[in-house]
Specification:
The chain is an alpha/beta fold. The chain has helices at 17-33, 82-91, 93-101, 115-121, 136-142, 169-181, 183-193, 216-227, 235-241, 246-257, 261-279, 284-290, 296-307, 311-318, and strands spanning 4-9, 38-44, 50-51, 57-58, 62-63, 71-74, 107-111, 128-129, 147-148, 154-156, 160-163. 47% of the residues lie in helices and 12% in strands. The strands form three sheets. Strands 5-2-1-6-7-11-10 form a seven-stranded mixed sheet, with helices on both faces. Strands 3-4 form a two-stranded antiparallel ribbon. A two-stranded parallel sheet has the order 8-9.
Length: 320
């Protein structure tokens, strides 16, 4: 099988941690295969050193246009607002032009905010793509020719691969290693390197990460729900603990999430169960009891209603 040459793209303000982790994974895959299957090359717009995020200054091995790569991985950049993203796209116009002019045989991969560079280059037009969910409004408005599918963690086409989250390099690497060397090899590498899992279970729970929860009321509600047993999660009791009326709580949650309070509470509690199913080997009955459900059968029924999977099937599907 021919060696796959992959360019690891550096550009001003990019976050290179994912590139290093991606390189470690493919280096481990080469060692496991006993031969060179993936050749890695650090590339940039030109040969000049690149000032990356966190004060890192890195030297590319080759200009992107001259590297003759089979694929290029575009990392994310530090941007926590639409205005910062716009500034980054403007600052990298020259690089974006080069990305757009690469031969169509070169696959372009990216994750998180880096997907915006690929979209700006035009190389995602007419294709399915995903990115970090908080970018959805900006990307939908700016790039209407892309078939955005933000509910997907990873989306691959013959010409591209895009993933959500700052750790989006991981599902890209996983898909690549499994395709080239098999799923068993990836599992062995993941266990050896003690990797985090590449996806946060089903997309039903995607909006529940506290790091992504910007509204103070929703953060306080989530912390309470995670702390209290499921059988004690009445709306009035939660409202009293939050020092607001039940009516105000219902109105605010509906406005912020589009869900009734009871439904939001159920999602939060079941997300806790989903985390335990993925990250531990606890029996399902123990998880149900620990989280305060009235009985195991009602827990199983509620979990399947929300996720479409039984707890056992969920554990089997989303564990490494």
């Amino acid at each position: 099988m021919p060696v796959l040459k992959i360019g690891l793209l550096l550009y001003p303000g990019c976050m290179p941690a994912g590139l290093f982790a991606f390189a470690d994974l493919l280096t481990a895959a080469n060692r496991r295969a006993g031969e060179l299957r993936f050749e890695l090359c650090w590339v940039a717009l030109d040969r000049e050193a690149v000032d990356c995020a966190q004060g890192m200054r890195l030297n590319p091995q080759s200009p992107l246009a001259e590297a003759q790569c089979d694929a290029v991985l575009v990392p994310g950049l530090w941007a926590d607002s639409e205005s910062m993203l716009s500034q980054a796209l403007a600052a990298n116009r020259a690089l974006i032009r080069v990305l757009g002019r690469l031969p169509r045989s070169v696959q372009l991969w990216s994750y998180c905010t880096g997907v915006s560079l690929l979209a700006q280059s035009g190389r995602l037009d007419g294709q399915g793509a995903t990115a970090t969910w908080w970018l959805a409004r900006e990307l939908l408005g700016r790039f209407p020719r892309v078939d955005w599918q933000f509910e997907q963690t990873l989306l691959r086409t013959p010409a591209s691969a895009t993933a959500s989250g700052v750790s989006g390099y991981l599902p890209i690497a996983r898909a690549l290693i499994e395709e080239q060397l098999g799923a068993a090899v990836y599992r062995e590498i993941a266990q050896l390197l003690v990797l985090p899992r590449p996806e946060a279970g089903t997309s039903v729970f995607r909006s529940l990460g506290l790091m992504e929860q910007s509204d103070p009321l929703l953060r306080r509600l989530q912390l309470l729900v995670e702390k209290w047993p499921a059988r004690q999660l009445g709306v009035r009791r939660l409202a009293d603990a939050l020092s607001i009326s039940a009516r105000t709580l219902a109105r605010r949650v509906q406005a912020l999430t589009g869900l009734a309070v009871a439904e939001q509470v159920r999602l939060i509690k079941l997300n806790q169960a989903g985390e335990r199913l993925i990250l531990t080997a606890e029996p399902i009955g123990h998880i149900s009891e620990a989280l305060g459900y009235a009985d195991e059968s009602s827990f199983r029924r509620s979990f399947k209603q929300v996720t479409g999977l039984t707890p056992a099937a969920y554990r089997q599907q989303f564990r490494l």
